[in-house]
Design a protein that fits this description.
155 residues, alpha+beta, Bacterial Protein-export protein SecB, four-stranded antiparallel β-sheet, SecB-like_sf, Protein-export protein SecB, protein transport, translocation, cytoplasm
Length: 155
């Protein structure tokens, strides 16, 4: 069997889902806009067909003002990627690092756009180091896998 050359190509970028909640409007627009922001990121992927993988980057932005939730934006930015000849841990890295890196600028723009359409200032999400997030998630998964084994050994 001949070696399959490694290929990685973006086939399509699309908005899978998005939502905006502004539970405190219109009263929020009478207050000074100095909220506390919380940003959660999540990625997931699935094998769609031969050589095709879907990766979904979910960005959830929550803004609180005076301990009241005043803005909630969630964006699921997705991409369809053609990947061939890449397997195992390398494939996990491509799906968990390279793909979200390509999707993030689009998700960032969608979050900003939704904030503006909701009557709020643009948010301007900071760049994200998906490699560091991927490595941290791997460490946590390894620690969780080791924890039950350690507790079983004590019995």
């Amino acid at each position: 069997m001949a070696d399959v050359p490694q290929t990685f190509a973006l086939q399509r970028i699309y908005l899978k889902d998005c939502s905006l909640e502004s539970p405190a409007s219109p009263m929020i627009f009478t207050k000074a806009w100095k909220p506390k922001f919380k940003v959660d990121l999540n990625t997931r992927s699935q094998h769609i067909a031969e050589k095709s993988h879907e990766v979904i980057l979910t960005v959830t932005l929550t803004a609180e003002l005076d301990d009241e939730k005043v803005l909630l934006i969630e964006v699921q930015q997705a991409g369809l990627f053609a990947i061939e000849g890449i397997e195992g841990d390398t494939l996990k890295q491509v799906l968990g690092i390279a793909c979200p890196n390509l999707l993030f600028p689009y998700a960032r723009e969608a979050v900003d756009s939704l904030a503006l359409k909701g009557g709020f200032p643009a948010v301007g999400l900071q760049p994200v180091n998906f490699e560091a997030l991927f490595r941290e998630a791997q460490k946590q998964a390894q620690a969780q896998a080791a924890a039950p084994a350690a507790s079983e050994a004590k019995h």
